[in-house]
């Protein structure tokens, strides 16, 4: 039986953070420990605000040009995650957050995880869920046939139809 990694992480992470507080508190003292925690929290908040706004501006500019953001979006998202980790109290989350700020670490992480991520660009003839055209043989809607888009005036309900329900509210 394969155990999931996430529940173990959720249980072990807080214990590791508490152990980190104890170790750092013994080494440098209570006030310096609290100062470090407060400092990284302020740094994370400032970075989250600045990087979040910067990322939104870049995404907006690329959207106006009609380009797919790709790697820029991944880098920005990792920096935002790093900022959130710096916001959290704890030295382990601060270490992970600081590591995510290093571009080389972000590229290495993306090379490991990026193989499993599929970026889908949708257009008028694309299927939003799969990124494949509607007529593609592996598309989930391929067996249903073509899609016919009707306007309000193009159809009417037949009350005598067996598929019509009498208790359905009238339009």
Folded structure, characterized:
By secondary structure, this protein is mainly alpha-helical. The chain folds into 2 domains: 13-112; 125-156, no CATH class. Helices cover 57% and strands 0% of the residues. The protein has helices at residues 5-28, 30-65, 71-87, 91-100, 103-113. Helix 1 packs across helix 2 (30-65). 7% of the residues are buried.
Question: Which secondary structure elements does this structure contain, and how are they paired or packed?
Answer:
Layout: H1 5-28, H2 30-65, H3 71-87, H4 91-100, H5 103-113
Helix pairs in contact: 1-2, 2-3, 3-4
Q: Identify the overall geometry.
A: elongated
Radius of gyration, rounded?
26 Å
Quote the beta fraction: under 5%
Largest sheet: none
Observed structural traits:
171 residues, mainly alpha, 2 domains, 5 helices
Short recap of the structure:
The protein is mostly helical and 171 residues long.
């Amino acid at each position: 039986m394969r155990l999931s990694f996430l529940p173990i992480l959720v249980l072990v992470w807080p214990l590791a953070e508490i152990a980190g507080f104890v170790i750092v508190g013994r080494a440098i003292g209570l006030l310096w420990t609290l100062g470090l925690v407060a400092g990284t929290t302020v740094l994370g908040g400032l970075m989250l605000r600045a990087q979040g706004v910067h990322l939104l501006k870049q995404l907006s500019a690329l959207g106006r040009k009609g380009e797919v953001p790709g790697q820029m979006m991944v880098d920005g998202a990792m920096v935002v995650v790093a900022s959130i980790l710096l916001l959290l109290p704890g030295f382990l989350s601060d270490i992970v957050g600081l590591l995510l700020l290093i571009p080389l670490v972000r590229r290495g992480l993306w090379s490991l995880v990026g193989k499993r991520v599929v970026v889908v660009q949708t257009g008028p003839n694309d299927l939003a869920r799969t990124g494949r055209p509607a007529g593609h043989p592996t598309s989930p809607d391929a067996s249903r046939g073509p899609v016919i888009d009707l306007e309000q005036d193009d159809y009417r309900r037949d009350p005598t139809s067996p598929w019509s329900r009498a208790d359905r509210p009238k339009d």
